Amino acid sequence: MSFADYLNSLFFGYLPYIALTAFIIGVIYHLIISDKNVHATSTMFLKKDRLMMWGSPMFHFGIILVFFGHIFGLLTPPALIEIFMPLATKRLIAITMGAGAGLFALGGIFLLILRRFFDIRIRRTGSFQDYFIILLIALQICLGLMSTFYTSRSTLADYLTFDFWAQGLVWFEPNAWRYIATADIIYKLHIINGFFIFILFPYTKLMHMVKVPVLYMFRANKVYNK
Ligand code: HEM
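Above: inputs. Below: predicted complex with protoporphyrin IX containing FE.
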C-alpha cells in the first residue's frame, strides 16, 4: 500500500467510524453522567443587537438546510433517486440549493463572528471554545462552498463517488475510501474538518442541539419546569 493510500484509508475509511463513536460516547456522557442542567451560556441576556437578530436566524436557517441536504444527498441510494428524477437533476438541485443554503449560513456566521469578536461585552464573556468552534464552522462552510463550486465543474460520475463512499461506509464496505481517493483536496479537507467538528461537538456549545430537546423531553431541567 502506498503512503497516499494509507492516508486515504486512515482519513476516509477509519476516521468516520472513530469520529462517530467519539461523538456518540461524548454526547451520552455529557447528557447522562457529566451534567443534567442546561447552562445559560447564551449571550442574549447581555445584548440582543442587530448582528444577533439577523445573524442567528440566517445561520440557523442555512445550516439546517445544509444538514438535510447532506443527509438526503449523500445517503439516498442512486437507484431510489432514479425512480423520481434523473441523477443529473439531483446534482443540479444539490448545486443550486446547496450553494444557496451555504451562502445564507456563511452570511449569518459572518455577522455572528463580527459580534463575538468586536463587541466588547460579548468578548469578555466568551471562552476559548466559543471562538474556536465558530471559526472552525466558518472554515467548514467555506470549504463546503468551494467543494460545491468544484462539483459544478466536474462530471456526474465524479459527483456520485461521494454518495458511493458514504453509502459504502454505512454498509461497512472495507474499501469504501477508494471511491474518493482521487477526489480534489478541497473535498478531502472539508470531510476531515467535518469529522473533527463531530469529535469536538460534545465539548462545545454545539451540544445545545441535543441538550435542549432531550432535557426538555425527560423533564430534567427542573428550573424550566417550575
Ligand atoms: C463530516 C461529514 C461531512 C461530509 C462527508 C460532507 C460532505 C460534503 C460534500 C461532498 C459537499 C459538496 C456537495 C456538492 O457536491 O455540491 C459538501 C458541501 C457543503 N458542506 Fe459538507 N460535509 C460534512 C460535514 C459538514 C459540516 C459539519 C458542515 C457545516 C458545519 C458542512 C457544510 C457544508 C456546506 C455549507 C456545503 C456547501 C453547500 C452544500 O452543498 O450543502 N459540511 N459537504
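The chain is about 75% helix and 0% strand.
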